[in-house]
């Protein structure tokens, strides 16, 4: 018998292209994932994908089950939402703040999908906050905050969305473009282009420059990612951004990117919510949709490995 967990595993394998990352996505060990797939192949009497290919290449039987998954899993999600709605308990408000200038690429499709499927939930992204968004969340002025900087606040839960690597964008003619990675000292004589936010919220400072006690020669700010890329491409400075935010510009051969440090720097993006809304059906659906949308539209991200709990 084919089970829903089998279909979800195949979808994860298709989207990640590897057994290791698919196992992370569905929260299994690689051994457990391999066992589940072999069990499924035994049930259907066919191999589902070709081993030792990257990305994974599916057989005709595997493609047939993927088509089934694409048909059934959305229907299951829709039924779950309808059942929650029939219970009459699904009313709520989702006012959110975004501490991430480049989040709209995946967040707006998430919000649009959610709005269409949960008309009972009031959704808004108010602008012009004159307060710390996480403190506003704790005071019930907001209901969700997208952040990469979780703070220990009583009653706040941090649901991990995905992990991402920070890369340094440089002009194609820049000397750094030929390097595999740069050290913090290399930025001491560079102009660093950043979003106009506090340096304590920028990974390039907190994880890379500050620990080495290095400061760039100059800081220049820009509001929009495309403006930052124009400055970088014209040799006006360098810029640290999430790998997925650079994908479009790298594919167009507009700029180059190098790792920050030999091992790179990785961060986790979270959805901060209050504990009392954590287990509501509509909030769980929003978080799940956000994760699925992120992995569908972004490149270079990885599943988060653990929940972020508040430390009261």
Using the 3D structure, state the CATH architecture of the largest domain.
3-Layer(aba) Sandwich
The profile of the biggest β sheet is:
11 strands, mixed
Q: State the helicity in percent bands.
A: 40-55%
Assembly classification: single chain
Please state the CA-atom Rg, rounded to the nearest Å. 22 Å
Distance between the termini: 46 Å
- Low-confidence segments, given as residue ranges, are 306-312
Query: At the fourth CATH level, what is the homologous superfamily of the largest domain?
Result: Periplasmic binding protein-like II
Integer tally of domains: 3
- DSSP strand content: 15-25%
**Shape descriptor:** globular
Structure summary, number of beta strands: 13
CATH fold call of the largest domain: D-Maltodextrin-Binding Protein, domain 2
Order of helices and strands: HHHEEHEHEHEEEEHEHEHEEHHE
What's the mean pLDDT score?
88
List the helices and strands and how they pair.
Elements: H1 4-16, H2 19-25, H3 30-44, E1 49-50, E2 57-58, H4 60-86, E3 92-98, H5 104-117, E4 121-124, H6 133-138, E5 144-147, E6 156-170, E7 181-182, E8 191-194, H7 203-209, E9 218-221, H8 225-233, E10 238-242, H9 243-251, E11 256-260, E12 265-274, H10 275-278, H11 281-297, E13 308-309
Parallel strand pairs: 3-4, 3-5, 7-11, 8-9, 8-10
Antiparallel strand pairs: 1-2, 5-12, 6-10, 6-11, 6-12, 6-13
Helix pairs in contact: 1-2, 1-4, 2-3, 5-11
